[in-house]
C-alpha cells in the first residue's frame, strides 16, 4: 500500500473506533434506527472493518489485533452495563470475535494479492 494512504487509513481506524464506541453507549431509545439488520450483523460488520483497518494501519501481528479488539469488545459490553436502556450481551462479543476473524481473513487475502502483484 502506498505510504500516502497510511495516514488516511490510520485516521479512518481511529474515527471508526470512536464512532463505534459512541454508537454503542448512546442510550438505545435515543440511538438512530439502522434499519432491519440484526445487531449481531452490525457487530460483525463493525469489528470486521476495525480489524481490517487496524491491520492496514499498523501492520501488527494478527494475534495482537485479536487481543486488542477483543478487549475493546469486552470494554464496550461492560460500558453498556452502566448505560441507561442498554445491557451487556456477551453474544455481541461472540459476533465481534467472528468479525475480527473475518477482517483478518480479508487482510490476509489482500497481502497475498499484494505480494503476487509485486512479483509480476
Automatic annotation (TrEMBL):
Transmembrane annotation, as ranges: 7-26, 41-58, 65-84, 90-110
Residue ranges of every copy of the VanZ-like domain listed in the record: 38-109
Keyword Membrane: yes
Keyword entries, A-Z: Membrane, Transmembrane, Transmembrane helix
PANTHER family from the UniProt entry: DOMAIN PROTEIN, PUTATIVE (AFU_ORTHOLOGUE AFUA_3G10980)-RELATED (PTHR28008:SF1)
Name of this protein: VanZ family protein
Amino acid at each position: 500500500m502506498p505510504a500516502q494512504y497510511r495516514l488516511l487509513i490510520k485516521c479512518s481506524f481511529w474515527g471508526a473506533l470512536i464512532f463505534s464506541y459512541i454508537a454503542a453507549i448512546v442510550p438505545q431509545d435515543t440511538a438512530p434506527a439502522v434499519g432491519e439488520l440484526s445487531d449481531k450483523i452490525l457487530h460483525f460488520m463493525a469489528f470486521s472493518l476495525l480489524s481490517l483497518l487496524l491491520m492496514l494501519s499498523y501492520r501488527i501481528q494478527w494475534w495482537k489485533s485479536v487481543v486488542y479488539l477483543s478487549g475493546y469488545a469486552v470494554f464496550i459490553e461492560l460500558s453498556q452495563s452502566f448505560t441507561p436502556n442498554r445491557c451487556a450481551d456477551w453474544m455481541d462479543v461472540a459476533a465481534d470475535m467472528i468479525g475480527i476473524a473475518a477482517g483478518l481473513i480479508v487482510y490476509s487475502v489482500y497481502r497475498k494479492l499484494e505480494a503476487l502483484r509485486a512479483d509480476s
